[in-house]
Structures are given as structure tokens and as C-alpha cells.
Amino acid sequence: MKLWILRHARAEAHSASGRDFDRALAPEGDIACEKLKSRLEEDPQPMRVTPPELILVSPALRTQQTAERALPAWPSARRIVHNPLWEATLGDLLYAVDYPTAEAPANSLMLVGHNPGLELLVQWLGGELPVTGLKPGCLVLLELAEGITRDSAQTLQFWPAIEFR
After folding, report:
1. Could you tell me the strand order of the sheet in which 78-81 lies?
2. Stretch 128-135: mean pLDDT, rounded?
3. Element (H, E) at 39
4. How far from each other are the two terminal CA atoms of the chain, in whole angstroms?
5. Structural domain spans, the chain
6. pTM (two decimals)
7. Mean pLDDT over residues 42-66, rounded?
């Protein structure tokens, strides 16, 4: 199974409501989403594989905006808001990775969510990350061996976030 992991792009420090859940993308996050979308649209087979069949997105505003702005309109991909991705633990994320087999078969899955959970998931699965970790707007593609087990993944590609200084 191919597992795409996208951490939401850079978000504002605070929301008008004061709730973390409601933080929107910062202007830098919008730019990063546009650049990622362009990268994915330029390559007919993004990252040398077919697009994900299922995209599970956290319900938080910044993840919804990242998915809307960064991901091309892949006709074969079903996009679902998956509430357990908000404040997800490693256990929640492992459940989400297993979600397609439980709900509907999928050969490839994308999670759009948050740290520290996503970074923990990549590490638990045995994927490689740079020393800087999974920064906002980073996209990583893993190949999972049969079943979801510790140290069973291989990192196929890592796309760093667009950096702003």
C-alpha cells in the first residue's frame, strides 16, 4: 500500500475564536499550497505513482484549507473528513491507515493532518525523515509492506515544505 502523509501548511499563530482548531493558513501557507499543487499537477503521475485513492483529512480549518488548496482535483480520489485525525495519537493514526481496509479497499491512502502524530507515525512505520522532521507543508510517500507493522515501511519520496525566511 502507498501511504501519502501531508502535514498541513503553515498556519496563523492565533484564530479569531482563540481556538487552535480554528486557525487558518497563514499567507506563507497559502503560497506553499499553491507551489505543492503546481508540483503535483506538472507530473502526470505525482511522485512516480498514481494519486491516492482515498484522502482522509483532519476536520481542523488549516488541514481542510491545505487539502483544498494543495491537492489537485484527482478524479479517482475520494476525500473524507476523518474526525480522529484531530489531535491524533499514534493509535488513532494506525487506525486511520487501516481505515481503507475496514471501510473500503484502497491501494493508496493520503492522510492530511498534524504533528506530532504524523511524525510519530512515519517513525513507527520505519520511514525516514530529515533531521528537521515533518515541517508544515511537508509531503512524504511511504510504501507499506503487507500489513501495518512497526518498521515495515520504506520512504519512496520526501518533498520538503517551501521555506520562507
Report:
1. 78-81, 54-57, 108-113, 2-7, 139-144, 153-159
2. 86
3. helix 27-42
4. 36
5. 2-159
6. 0.91
7. 83
